[in-house]
Amino acid sequence: MFIAFKVLFNSRFYYPVFTILFLDFGLTVAQFAILNAVWAATIVLAEVPSGALADIIGRKRLLVFATFTMIFEIGIISFVPKTDPSVIFIVFLVNRVLSGFAEAAASGADEAIAYDSLAAKGDPDQWGRVLEVLMRFQSVGFIVAMSVGAAIYDPVLLGRICQFFGLAVTFSQETTMRFPLYLTFILAVFAFITTLKKEELDSGSSSSG
User: Fold this and answer.
1) What stretch of H or E contains 164?
2) How far apart are CA 203 and CA 116, in angstroms?
3) What is the rounded CA–CA span in Å between residue 56 and residue 20?
4) Predicted TM-score of the model (pTM)
5) Within a 10 A sphere around the Cβ of 139, how many other Cβ atoms?
């Protein structure tokens, strides 16, 4: 569950077109810079409180919050209409704040649950092996997400892929620009389900953050 969560939570199909995606929604370069500064500041400011919150409500609940927040923050930009630029900026601002909260909430909590589970089974020495396997799966997840995300963002390339399979479909950039977000939204849902299936031991002494 630990490895599945990490791969699902961190593999974002929109990463290879991150900047272009924001600009295609009508945001300016200055607004893009502001949004990412807000995202980084949110993570820094929420990091310590999230660790304290994990001790109060438990790490699993914090991870449930993180994945639910991911669903919401990806969902709002996936389906926001391209109408009023000021509304779009506000929606993306909310997205960046929520994304920062999700990152801070997930930081360390999942590792702590996984390590405690190994320790309870008497296998803490296997932690290095777990991280090794995680790195392999995450690398594959990143490569797949980046490759697919870039391919489905390009309407011309996506059209050629469809033609290769005998499908006469024409796409517009207005349509394909949201495809990486839709796939990431699906991953967020699966990450949420995976988190619900996690089991947290009552360690009492460890914290996340």
Assistant:
1) helix 155-164
2) 7
3) 40
4) 0.84
5) 11
Q: Residue 111 falls within a domain, yes or no?
A: yes
Torsion of CA 159, 161, 163, 169, to 10 degrees: -30
Averaged pLDDT, 157-165: 85
Which of 56, 131, 71, 145 has the alpha carbon at shortest distance from 101?
71
Q: Residue 31's domain spans which residues?
A: 2-196
Phi-psi region of 27 (alpha: psi -120 to 50; beta: other; left: phi over 0): beta
Which amino acid would we find at residue 183? L
**Within 13 A of 129's CA, how many CA atoms are on the CB side?**
5
Identity of residue 102: A
Residue for token pair 């990412």? 36
> Is the residue at 203 inside a domain?
no
Give the tens place of pLDDT for each residue, 28-71. 999 999 999 999 999 999 888 887 887 788 888 888 999 999 99
Least confident of 100-109, 112-121, 139-148, 198-207: 198-207
Domain count, the chain: 1
Q: How far apart are CA 187 and CA 14, in angstroms?
A: 12
Residue-wise pLDDT for 107-142, tens only, equals 777 777 777 777 777 677 777 888 888 889 989 999
DSSP label at residue 200 = -
Tokens of 122: 């008497």
Asked whether residue 205 is domain-assigned, the answer is no
